[in-house]
Amino acid sequence: MNFELTEEHKMIRDAARDFAQTELLPGVIERDENQTFPTEQIKKLGELGFMGMMVSPKYGGAGMDTISYILAMEEISKVDASCSVVMSVNNSLVCWGLETFGNEEQKEKYLKPLASGEMIGAFCLSEPEAGSDATSQQTTAIDKGDHYLLNGTKNWITNGSSASVYLVIAQTDLEKGHKGINAFIIEKDMHGFVVGAKENKLGIRGSDTHSLMFTDVKVPKENRIGEDGFGFKFAMKTLSGGRIGIAAQALGIASGAYELALKYSKERKAFGTEICNHQAIAFKLADMITEITAARHLVMKCAWDKDQGNNYDVSSAMAKLYASKVAMEQTVEAVQIHGGNGFVKEYHVERLMRDAKITQIYEGTSEIQKIVISRSVIKG
Ligand SMILES: Cc1cc2nc3c(=O)[nH]c(=O)nc-3n(C[C@H](O)[C@H](O)[C@H](O)COP(=O)(O)OP(=O)(O)OC[C@H]3O[C@@H](n4cnc5c(N)ncnc54)[C@H](O)[C@@H]3O)c2cc1C
Q1: Ligand 1 mean position, distance from CA 132 (Å)
Q2: Catalytic-residue membership of 363
Q3: Which atom of ligand 1 lies at the shortest distance from residue 160's CA?
């Protein structure tokens, strides 16, 4: 057992913290208010190597481990969860999925620009009738010899309009059920592909969430990822790692709110003393830091599992389930500690509270994480 971070890990964490303070904090309230995508900030994150953190340098990535990735995710999420979700989808869903399961041609053509941040990727599984039940795919890709013909609609897609490359899951053979599902690489300018209107959201408002429509899109055969019928497994495996990123995002939202609440409680006075001297507030701080520390250990554990080559399906589900609960509960406490100021935008905690909610919903709701965990304990 070793709870110490390496010097390299500390450097990465500090670089991400510095970036969040200097590049993300200014303008974060306005981007949230106006639903502005952080274009410039994502470009700079790419230049720093944060858009393809775990990708091998052979494909233009930074070649870092998963611990480094979650340290960076936590720091970015403390300040701007809209930015960190773009980073998370690109790193742990799109780049990881392509590097692990794509062929050499796909990696050369798509992974390289995605890992360097030159392009942004999107991961497209959810549909109007297929959210938690991802096997109910209505989007079809019919084999036409040298290409597939793609038809259908995807819902709630992060990076929906800012992406250039989309990993799209579709049913190729209905009779085979989930074994008749495939994953395809779609380019934005393919004929018949239309990006729908932007969703007006409660939180992570700076990220762009869209529905996507595909009408007779001709997808070259070489754009299928893996063997025929591999798509469902591809989606599940990829999401398992994605949950590590979202767990780290939730951790960052919680710890960002805690840091603001701690600072505020040492400055704000009531009844002749700083409010941190009132036991009710001091105990809130004690609960917050205890729960955040427990969440951090779970997040570190699943990242470590992944780096060690262990199975991380359950540890990532636990980390996401717990960290997202902590994020939701502790951001509410942070607003409470701020009193009336917690309810206005300038103090940031109301945004963190709104942002926290999505971590209990996307990449598998909390109920779905409990299904993953309970099935594993019951099976033994
Ligand atoms: C901002 C945002 C960004 C997103 N980004 C992406 C993206 O980039 N790519 C993508 O593919 N998807 C994305 N999603 C979709 C997201 O993953 C789904 O919303 C999520 O998986 C839940 O699916 P659903 O909305 O259809 O809810 P449903 O599946 O309809 O669930 C509704 C409720 O029922 C519960 N429930 C469902 N089944 C069960 C069960 N068997 N047991 C117990 N409870 C159950 C759920 O937990 C939930 O509480 C995004 C969503 C949002 C809001």
Answers
A1: 5
A2: yes
A3: 8
